[in-house]
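Hey, resending since the last one bounced:
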Amino acid sequence: MKKSKQLLSLLLIGTLALSTNISAAAASTTLTAAPSISASFKAKVSASPSNGAIRNAYEAVIDYATANGIPLDLSLETFIEEYEASSLTLATYEQSYYDLLPKQNPFTTYASGEDTWYYDTGTDLPQPANYSKYNLLDTVVEGDVIYESKGGWGITGHTAIVEGTYYSSTYQQYYIRIIEATTTGVVRSVLDDDRIDDKGSSILRVDSATPTIALNAISFCLSQLGKDYMIDFQKDTGIGEPDWYCSELVWAGYYRQGIDIETDNFFNEPGITPRDINNCDRLTSINFR
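The structure tokens again:
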């Protein structure tokens, strides 16, 4: 009888202990759940010895963009993933965002489509295009990438993709049409000699792109016409994406065809910047002068 009571006591203690552990685990799960960050990602961030410093750097970048009216939609996940993929110190990595996002009004220095005639022209040529200085019409082909060193607030540059050469009955001339993501969204625009000079432009050709690949890349970019502009430093490729920044759109067009036009050298910047594309050794600069 005495042994039976001892055994019963042990069973009760074990049951209570198991119940307590289960309750504690449930409570722990409730406390660690996050509506906007996955449990696995949150655990990864929490386990990082520099967790506080990473979050502080991320919040400082977001505060900076907000204070300066910069359209930045950067997630914590992307911020950390880009940092881990880089070989930079956290301080240098944080500074790279400030270098990419200067304290300027983007509508005064970027391709806003409001100040210069060759932005957001649609399918019509709004005025005569100038081709008297360079050999653009005989050089540029469908799918070429335009890199503008004076775009993107004059800091990161700007990129666009060539849609093709078209004829204007109104002005009795051929002209080059491009697709680009500007601060007004994804639009058609015009490339001519004046824009080349205004923006310090270069013509880049994707080495492994066949005519079919180039046309498919163009088709994807055309499917995004009218989408919004947003800097998020992500590497989106989906046809249903709601917004784009300039270099991300051009990169995605080719990435969906199996060609990565982002540089993989030491100077790779957060996200995909125009300089990353310009520095990629899988593109060749084409002489048009």
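The two ends are 104 Å apart (CA to CA).

Sorry for the duplicate.
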